[in-house]
Structure formats: C-alpha cells, structure tokens
Amino acid sequence: MAGAGDPRVSTPLPFFVYGTLRPGARNHAALLSGRTEEEAPAVLTGAVLYEGPGFPYLVESGSEEDTVHGELLTPRAELYEAVARDLDRLEGYVPGGPANHYDRVRREVRRSDGGRAAAWVYVAAGRLALSLAERGRRIEGGDWSGRTG
C-alpha cells in the first residue's frame, strides 16, 4: 500500500475529503478522529460529485464553475504516514494500480478564509471517471454532507 514514503506522496499535504471521511461521517470517526491537527471547510473547483453505492465519486471536469465542498484535514505530523496508509487502504488506492477505483492526486483547494492550499484528493480513476461523466448521477451543488455516511 502507498503511504507517505511513496515518492509520489513524499511531501506531507493535508487531505481534501468530501464524503464519508468528513467530520461527523462514519469513516472520519473510524480513521481520523483524534488523528488530525486541523480540520477546515474547503472547496475544490473544476470537479463534480457523482453518486456511488453509499459514497461519492469526485470527477474532474476542468470547469471553474464546477465546485465540490469538503474539508481540508491536516493529520498530526507524528501520525501522517499511518493516516496516509489508512486512507489509501480505505480508498483502494495503489500507485499506478490498474484496478484503482480512486487515484490520489495533488490539487489546489480554496480554504474558507479565502486562502489556497495544496492537498491530496481522491478522484475517480480512469474508465470509472469516464463512465460516471457519461452516465452517472451527479450530486447537484457538489456537497455530499447531510447524507448517511
């Protein structure tokens, strides 16, 4: 499994989360509670959300008008590698893995205070992203909060 030691993720960055990893959701409680030093609302532009079976998929659109609402989570420094490994495992992400449902990519997000930050974002991978963009059920407004998860 990939983690902070992977050359593609050697720079510890916060994670932009938009679904079941957001504060108050089931996977946040299981994997992130007590393991972050900061959690702040943030927005990713150029992306849309699609319904998945109990969780959303983020697909990059390239349009600045499309936005996804989420949280910017900064793991505690001493736990960073473990948190990255746990999140990669949850998302089924393996660097370069042909069967990935999600890929982890570095993107810039806008913080609620107006500032910008680089973050890791899990996006729908390859053929899945194409299929969702063609036939998926889009989550209008780009906000998963309020759903069961």
Descriptive keywords:
single chain, 149 residues, alpha+beta, Hypothetical upf0131 protein ytfp, five-stranded mixed barrel, disordered N terminus, AIG2-like_dom, GGCT-like_sf
Summarize the structure.
The protein has three helices and seven strands.
What does this structure look like?
The protein has 149 residues and is α+β, with helices and mostly antiparallel strands. The chain has one domain: Roll (Hypothetical upf0131 protein ytfp). It contains three helices and seven strands. The relative contact order is 0.26.
| CATH fold type | Hypothetical upf0131 protein ytfp
Top-tier CATH class = Alpha Beta
Give the mean pLDDT. Answer: 89
> Ends: how far apart?
24 Å
User: Compute the gyration radius: what is it?
Assistant: 14 Å
SSE order: EHEEEEHEEH
Number of helices: 3
- Within CATH, the superfamily carries the name Gamma-glutamyl cyclotransferase-like
Secondary-structure arrangement, i.e. CATH architecture? Roll
Q: What is the 3D shape? A: globular
Which percent range fits the helix content? 10-25%
The fraction of residues assigned to DSSP E strands is: 25-35%
Arrangement of strands in the largest sheet = 1-5-2-6-7
Low-confidence regions: 1-8
Instruction: Indicate how many domains the architecture comprises.
Output: 1
Class from secondary-structure proportions: alpha+beta
